[in-house]
Amino acid sequence: MFGCTFDILSTAIGVIIPIYGTWKTLQSRKTRPLVPYAKYWTVFGLMTLIEWFTNLLYLPQFLPGYSLIKLVAVVYVSQGGYERIFRDIVNPFLKDYEPTGERILNAAKQVGPRIVTSAVNVIVDQMVVSLTRQRVLENNGDAQPDDLNVSVNRRRSSVRIMEVQEESDDEIVLED
After folding, report:
1. What tens digit of pLDDT does each residue of 117-152 get?
2. Is 71 exposed, middle or buried (0-12, 13-18, 19+ CB in 10 A)?
3. Membrane-spanning regions, if any (predicted)?
4. 86: number of CA atoms within 13 Å, CB side?
5. 3-state SS string over 25-65?
6. pTM of structure
């Protein structure tokens, strides 16, 4: 009965308020006040990962009071509990597995852009083929079968991959 209310409160307390606080801190362009927010969002990310696993196991459906438990956890974390969780659990765990994490991140940095580019190409190719087929149907089927391949190849030659530029750690730069 109260599950929906608890979920709304969890979202307001755990997400909306910290988003605004983080944004206000970013607007100040000071880096030191961002440290607590970085810790908070790290712990919140861990909580989100745990919730994802609980959803896979259908625990919210079988555990009475799940939404209330989640709300209590979110309130605890948002009221400074993130500091203790980060210090006692997250930080030691990540330090122990830092070399493994670095290897995974480096591999993801190398493979990630290729995967994203391939996925984007597949999606755009399918869109081009679909639009070309639609155009063929609108023109009473007057196009040749090779027109589909020509459209895809023409689209590929016009795609440009943009490189991500790293920003300096000295100052936070926000675009207005």
Report:
1. 899 999 998 998 888 888 877 777 655 555 555 555
2. buried
3. 6-23, 35-53
4. 18
5. HHHHCCCCCHHHHHHHHHHHHHHHHHHHHHHHCCHHHHCCC
6. 0.61
- Statement to judge: residues 138 and 65 lie in one domain: no
Inform me whether the pLDDT recorded for 57 exceeds 60.
yes
Q: Are residues 120 and 92 in the same domain?
A: no
Classify residue 8: in a domain, yes or no. Answer: yes
Question: What local confidence, expressed as pLDDT, does residue 151 receive?
Answer: 52
More confident residue, 83 or 7: 83
Q: Which residues contact 32 (CB under 8 A, 6 or more apart)?
A: none
58 and 123 belong to one structural domain? no
Give Rg (Cα) of the chain: 24
**Dist. CA 79–CA 62, nearest whole Å:** 28
